[in-house]
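[stage:ingest] chain + small molecule (zinc ion)
[stage:ingest] validated
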Amino acid sequence: MTALASLKEVLAEVSDLRQAAELLGWDQETYMPAGGVQDRANQLGTLSRISHERFVAAGTGRLLEAAESEVAGVAEDSDDARLVRVARRDWDQETRLPSDLVVAMAREGAISRPVWQEAKAKGDWSLFAPRMRITVELAQRVAEAIGTTGRAYDALIDMNEPGLDTAAVEQTFSQLRTAIVPLLRRVQAHADRVDLSVLDREVEPAKQLSFSALVVERLGYDLQRGRQDLSAHPFCTSFGMGDVRITTRVKPGLREGCLFSSIHEAGHAMYEQGVSRALARTPLAMGTSPGVHESQSRLWENLVGRSRPFWTHFYPELKVAYGGALDDVGEEEFYRACNAVQPSYVRVDADELTYNLHVMLRFEIEKELLEGRLSVDEVPQAWAAQVKEYLGLEPPNGAEGPLQDIHWTFPILGGFIGYALGNVIGAQLMERARAELIALDDQIAAGDFAPLHGWLGEHVYRHGRKFTPQELVQKVTGRGIEPGPWMRYVECKFGDLYELN
Ligand code: ZN
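[stage:predict] done
[stage:export] tokens:
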């Protein structure tokens, strides 16, 4: 047996253990009774420790070294060569994390979750603050263990988005800000041109849920290998290519309805379902990074789901499915309402234009916390100041401030940047897809999503984690990650919507 084959066996076991832990996590967010928290924390801690120890074992290191010699002459982009390269990167990174830190992250995360839920329900940051101190401390320990020649935040970014660093993200974000802020001002001066009051209408949640399931299936989410459940914070999780699940949340009011969040999560799920079967049970059998993952969810949610051709196709069906609630509302009116720009407190409800500002705000606060310039107790004030500066809004209520997102329970920092990178990368990929699929809008208007789904499958999904974000974007578009296409897209879309030109 070759070393590569033996290495694949180890990696397959590690992948099984991790996916079993994912299943426990999915259950915790969907059906687990509240009393299960402590047992679940222990189980997740144990599984994380076993998979971590199995992966970082000296034996795995020796297999890796031998496998590296075996693939030395193999084509650089082949599955085997890429597998060994990615396994090496992961191994080098994970061997730097001591076992007790890995266990602590899994256990503390499970314990933080219900505390966050209660703190959010009561809108009281002080309840969550002790857990947040643990998150910051663990993130600092991770950054220190991974090590970096630059800033502490670099290590966390590199773990999430290999190849990028704090300076690169700061540069991209400042370019985005210079495009968003003046455009937002112009839009706000003509806010009366778009009326979003139709979204105050109410539709029974069951009707919304079944319509969203119908839509995501038609986009290409395979429900034979997936399902949709409810959770407080929508997410997508994979237990293998044959079982990729999404969750959504729903309220009667259409503003907080489930459709766009279902489409968003289905975008993630289609990516996971579309990874080449040859990569199953390897570290390559998942999306390449949170940022690229988010490019797929945001592409389907916004560039497709909030487009005119999409509603040309779906609006008549939506009117029927929603049982008359929108009978007197025309397609154009509904399309405009779905795209209305209105600075708000909650990231997941933010419009396309202001969304990135929410991400930048978290990025700034995380950097300050990690680098010790801000204390956990000062987060609400810092948050309020950023909300004022970026979004022009007065300080939010507790639940609409720093407690709104689940991410700080995980417990790690550095993950939020993926949401803004996702918008940037999604627009780059879509610009390329449009150049190749010249009838794309007509296809979407006809309800034919197969060409776009197929294009993404060919250029993005099937590669799994073979390429870094930069490599993938370069391969597909011929250029590195750059905000130009997203900036052109919002300028064009909102310029048209608000009749700015
Ligand atoms: Zn997402």
